[in-house]
Each structure stands twice: as structure tokens, then as C-alpha cells.
Protein: tRNA N6-adenosine threonylcarbamoyltransferase
Amino acid sequence: QYILAIETSCDETAVAVVKNETELITNVVASQIESHKRFGGVVPEIASRHHIEQMTLTLQQALDDSGMTIDDMDAIAVTEGPGLVGALLVGVNAAKSIAFAKQKPLVGVHHIAGHIYANRLEKEFQFPLLALVVSGGHTELVLMREHGSFEIIGETRDDAAGEAYDKVARTLKLPYPGGPHIDRLAHEGEETIEFPRAWLEDGSYDFSFSGLKSAVINRLHKAKQRGEELKAEDVAASFQASVVDVLSTKALRAAEEYGVKQMIVAGGVAANKGLRKALEEKFQNSEAELLIPPLHLCTDNAAMIAAAGAVAFNQGHRSGWDLNANPGLDLERYGARKTGSPS
Ligand code: ATP
Ligand code: MG
Ligand code: FE
Structure:
């Protein structure tokens, strides 16, 4: 069984083919980062225009790479949300056109379900499992008791982890996206500043990063006023220590409370070296097996959409010809709408 998937929710135009749910055949990602850099973030209209320009070329490359045609595919999967509406529309319309022309089943996929299922291209899932989703727009702990079922046990109350990285990076005048730059600097610096850790109420699995972000900005401001020399490396190391401490501590506590078999890490911030190391240390003596995808499967790609789409397809989910982009698509509700009739 072959699934062709399209992902255009943000700033990468991506097409992939996955065989039998877990075997990656091809994974093509056309990134627009260079075009958004000078604006310090993703400009939605520019993203949409890039997607429309790159969509067919990316599809062509994915088919060339795999030596296959659309006729060989069993279904067409596409990210229907969440994401930027104008960006999503390009992928949704491309997927619908292909599916309609070739009369193939169409499967709408939740972007975060995709980030989670990226891990299954590396290793089979064992339930119950917990996924720590840390991306540009999301930070949440998701409990999965079976395929395609998602229960959010904790989430950010303000900024996402990736968003905090990008905002702090901007204050340090680092290029967009800032996450990888802070990560690099953090390894050259030391934790000389004690930034707050938002543990929230006892037992809560929610997160909060806006206070930390403000603390970093205030500290830099104060240093400037005093003419004090603060090393960017140390600021990065101190900021990263706070983020990583909270994420890894809550992940371990949740894994033990829910007695999960696996702890899965998903989303762009899963590429963070500090987070990977902290989780590896924390989970060394845990019953739960830690899974972290390779870097190319952490950030946005279509292989993950194919992996999640294949499962949804095999569970009976089909989207109708009225499939639309849904920028606010809810993960739990997406998981609940299993079989049969069109979305
Ligand atoms: P979402 O998936 O929530 O819709 P998104 O698709 O924009 O958002 P991703 O592509 O999953 O997010 O991840 C991008 C984010 O990951 C950016 O905020 C980026 O700074 C961050 N990121 C990437 N690499 C690293 C790293 N090494 N350390 C920290 N953050 C990183
Ligand atoms: Mg991205
Ligand atoms: Fe993403």
C-alpha cells in the first residue's frame, strides 16, 4: 500500500510517499526559510505564493525520486490543519485535484498527528504512549492509548516552546528561525543567569513560556542600561536550561504517572541538542522507552503526514470532495472522527 502525502501548513512545501504505513520511500522538502529570513518570521502571503510556485515541482520530484506515478498510489493524504490558512489551501487544493483526477481516496491529516507519527517511521509504537509535542506553534503532552486516538493531558497556556526560542533569538539579533542558533550558542556558554521555571500548580502538565521570555528580555535590557557585558552564549545557555528543565521534568513525571511504554518526542524543537540530552538522561532508568526522531523528521515534512494519513486511511477515514483548510483543527476531535463518512 502506497500513500502520497502533501504538507504546506507553514513554510515548507513537502511531498512524500510512504509504503505500508511505516516504510519511507521518498521525502522531498522545499524550504522557504531564505525568503522569510529578512522579515524575522514567516510572512503568510509570501508563504502561500511560494507554495503555489513549488507545489507541482515538489510533487514531480517526489514521483521522480520514487520512480512511481500517481496511479501507483492507494490514497492521497494532505495536511488540512492547523497552520496558516493560505498556505494550507495550496496543499489541500493540490491533493483534491490529484485525487479527483485519478479517483483516489482523499485523507485529511492533522499536522500534529503527523509530527507524532514521524516517530513511527523509525520504530513501531507501543501503547499506551505519551508524546511530548514541541514545535513552533504547539507545546503539549499527548496520551495515546491506541492508533489515531489523542488525549491532551497538558499544553502551553501562552507561547509554544519554539515560539519562545524564536522570540528570544530575535532579541539576541539572531537570524530566523532562532531555535537552532540558540541551541548552538547554548553549547558554547554557561548557565550564569538563573531564569524562572514555570512549574505551575502541583501536578499540572501545562506549560508556560511567556514569563521566561519576558525575563530574558528584561535581563538584557537591564544589562544594557548598566553598561554590563552579558555574553549571548550565557544568555542562550541559561534560557535553554530553563526550557529543557521544565519540558524534561514534566515529561518524565507524566510518563511515570500514566505508566506508558514509550515517550515520544515530536516537532521542530525535538531537534534541540540540549533537550535530547536531558531526556536521554532522565529516561535512562525509566520503564518508558524514549523515541526521538532523526533531525529531518523533526521539522515539517510530508513523510510524517503520510505516516499519520496511512493509519487514518486504514482506520476507514475518508475526506469528502468538500475538504477545506482548517487552521484551527482540534487534535482530540480529529482523532475521534474515525471511520466512514467524509469529514
Ligand atoms: P506547528 O508544528 O506547531 O504548526 P511549525 O510547523 O512552524 O509549528 P516546526 O516546523 O515543527 O513548527 O518547528 C519549527 C520550530 O522549531 C521553530 O520555532 C524553530 O526555532 C524550532 N527549532 C528547530 N530546531 C531547533 C533547535 N535545535 N532548538 C530549538 N528549537 C528548534
Ligand atoms: Mg517550519
Ligand atoms: Fe510543524
About this structure: Residues 10-12, 136, 299-300 surround magnesium ion (ligand 2) (CB under 6 Å). Residues 23 and 178 are 32 Å apart (CA to CA).
